[in-house]
Amino acid sequence: MATKDMSVGKPIKVLYAFALPMIISVLFQQFYNIADSLIAGNFINDDGIALAAVNAAYPVTVVFIAIGNGFGVGGSVAISRIFGAKQYCRTKTATLTALINIFVFALIFTVVGVFTCKPLLSAMNSQDLGEDVFTQSVDYLSIYIYGLTFLFIYNVVSSIFQALGNSKTPLFLLIFSTILNVIVDIVFVKYCNMGVKGLAWGTFLAQGIASVLSLILLLVNIAKLPKDSPETQRPLRKNSWKENPVFSLSIWSSIMLMSLPSILQNSTVSIGQLFMQSLINSFGNANLVAAYGSAFKINYIIISIFLTISNAMATFTSQNIGANHLDRAKEGLKGGLISMIAIAVVSTTVYLIFAKGLVGVFIKEQNDEIISIGSQFLYILAPFYIVVCIKIIFDGFIRGAGDMAGFTSATMTDLLIRVGLSYIFVKACHLSYVSIWWSWPIGWLLGATVSVLFYLSKRWKKTSLRKL
């Protein structure tokens, strides 16, 4: 559970030694998210109704995950900058401040989620899919919301571990949680006949156990940090009564300054996905919803790998800027970009060859319409993975340098183009759902352009000079 100083060593080797456990972790995370759909499609015999119900609720769960991740991003950037400067006492205070912050917000979002669950699904045209799909979707989402505190705390704790250069502990916890989730899901669904409610309760239980364990391990790990050296020790501020306060208003302000753009960006992207799901639901075709949800999760496996490397890039950049090693940060960006392009080429090839088989995994009985629609989605998006990987790696660099405006602008461009074009194609031009698929690569192209331009403008050099 040792922390890792990424301001020393060969940049690309350090970056990927740190990123590899994160990549394995995110693959398990995606399997964790996919598990409910796989079990719904293969263990609940209701002609795909349960699969459609879980997939209809999925975009809402992604909103909450995005918010939790946004808080994690803000905390990790702030903590990694402090840790990179070897201010270990402030690192302890920053960690406790981030934990208190997320606990309060988790309670707030739980209350909001409980009261908005059913109206939100109604607003997404989920009722157009039939009463059975809508009812089961509400049941699934309601139970999921009860576990938001566990979800938020786990995501933030994982981000803090990564900010300290420790990407292995979150991986081990996630592997444990994923296996537990699958086992409990199958027991609840197959042997207890709990249907989609069993899937939700299985997720609740697995997240709860993982959250508590991760929090305990983090607190133990933080307690082992050394004391500051005379060179890095900061004098106590006026009216500060001890060296390691539990909460720091100034650090909290820095965390929120980093968190809010990420929360806005992440949640806006997820809310954009809600609009996309609403548009797809409006066709009133449960097979379309089942196909889109399944293909979306397959697509997101590779996107999540890109995002994970981007998160590692952000931590690497932030630590090296904190240590005043700007050239190392740029060298890490170059190596990361080359590696991500290679991953994009391989994943594009795999998806183009095996698209139908991958979609077919989600359904027990052959359904040609679901397989055809889902594979078509992958055929259109996969050739553009090189474009989106370029966007995401530059996003990670400018985010780690503290240029949250550039980071947010690039992502918002992608989102607005993607959602806007989808509605124009379907509502104004009366095109089929296939036109929605084409809005994705167009958004990626424009978003990548904005991200690269922000990097070339070098405005991130000014933001990197800000003190936390």
Task: Please give a structural write-up.
The mean pLDDT is 83. The chain starts with 10 loop residues before the first helix and ends in a 5-residue tail after the last helix. The chain is an all-alpha fold and 468 residues long. The chain has one domain (11-229, 250-463). It contains 15 helices and no strands. 54% of the residues are buried. It has helices spanning 11-43, 49-84, 88-123, 131-146, 148-163, 168-191, 195-223, 249-281, 286-322, 326-360, 368-381, 385-400, 404-428, 434-457, 460-463. It is 81% helix and 0% strand.
Name the features.
15 helices; 0% strand; mainly alpha; 468 residues
Would you report the number of β strands?
Answer: 0
Number of domains: 1
Overall structural class, as computed from helix and strand content, comes to mainly alpha
**Intertermini distance:** 26 Å
Query: Which band does the percent of strand residues land in?
Result: under 5%
Could you report the average pLDDT, rounded to the nearest whole number? 83
Total helical segments: 15
Low-confidence stretches: none
What's the SSE pattern? HHHHHHHHHHHHHHH
